[in-house]
Amino acid sequence: MAQINKHLKYKMLVLDLDDTLLRDDYTISDRNKALLIKAQQCGVKVVLASGRPTQAMLQFAHILQLARFDSYIISFNGAVITAMKNHEVLFEKCLTREEIHRLHDFSLTNNLDIITYTEHGVVSESDSPYIDVELNLTGLPHHKVACFKSEITTTAVKCILLEDPEYLKLMEVKLKNEQTDLSIARSKPFFLEVMPHGIDKAASIDILAKRLGILKHEIIAVGNAGNDLTMVQYAGLGIWVDNVMPEIRHLADEVVSSNMNDGVAEVVEKYILQQIQ
User: How far apart are CA 239 and CA 15, in angstroms?
Assistant: First the structure.
C-alpha cells in the first residue's frame, strides 16, 4: 500500500466524475490531471466515486495513475469498491432479483424507462434519448430485450429509472414513499438511481476510510448532484462545484468553480497543496 502522509490535514480526496471532475465533453483537463497526480505524490488518496459502472471509470483511473499510487474507485453509486493497484473488489452489494422486478413493475405503472447492467451491457426493454445519454457516458453496448424480467434472473448492482426531469422529481418522491427499503437518488435531472438499502457513496467511503485508517475529518468530497449529497455531508469538508443542482446548493461547506473551470484543481490547490507549502 502506498504510504499516506500522516502529517496531512486531509488524507483522502473523493471526487464525483460526471459534471464534477469531468468537463462537459467527458474529459479531464490538463490542470486537474496535473494537480491530482501531485496530490497523490504528496500522499493523498484520490478516490473516484461515480454512478458509472466500474468498466466506464477505468479510463479515468488510468489517466490519473490511481494504480501507481494505490488509490481506489467507487462505482455504481457505492455498490462496488475496487482497489486500482490490483483491481481487487473490496466490497460489492447488489439488488436482489425480486427488488429489480419490483422496480420494473413500478416503471411500467408510472410510464418510466428502466435500465440495469449485465455482462451484455445496459439492459432495457425500450429506447429513449435518456438511455442514449447513459450509453454515451459509459460506452457500454445497449442490450435491448423483449422482456426485462426474463432477462434479469439474478442480482444486479443498481437500476436507473429515466424520464423528463420534472416528472422524475414527482416519481422520486413516490418511489421513496413506496420503496423504503432501497437507496434512491438522482445523479442527473433525468436519472433516478436505485441501489440496495444502505448503499450510497458515503457508506462506501466510510468502509474504505476505515480500511485505510482515515478519519471523517481527514476527507474532502466534491460533487454536483443529488447522489453526491451523502458523501458531501459525510466528509470533513464537503464541496460543490458551481454547476451543482440548485436545490442542494446550500447543503455543502463551500462552492468552488464549475466543472468547466477546474473547480477540482481549485480544491487541490487551496486545501492540499497550500497546507503542505
Answer: 10
- Residue numbers of the domain that contains 228: 12-93+199-276
pTM of the entire predicted model: 0.92
Give the distance from CA 160 to its chain's centroid: 13
Q: What is the DSSP letter of 200?
A: S
**Where is the domain boundary, 196, 220, 240?**
196
Task: Catalogue the E-assigned strands of the chain.
Answer: 12-15, 45-49, 72-75, 80-83, 88-92, 113-118, 121-124, 142-144, 159-162, 182-188, 191-196, 219-223, 237-241, 254-256
72-103 pLDDT, tens digit each: 999 999 999 999 999 999 999 999 999 999 99
CA distance 261 to 258: 5
Please check whether residues 242 and 109 belong to one and the same domain: no
Is residue 2 domain-resident? Answer: no
Q: How far apart are CA 162 and CA 135, in angstroms?
A: 13
Q: Is residue 244 part of a domain?
A: yes
Cell digits of residue 238: 464537503
CA atoms within 13 A on the CB side of 239: 26
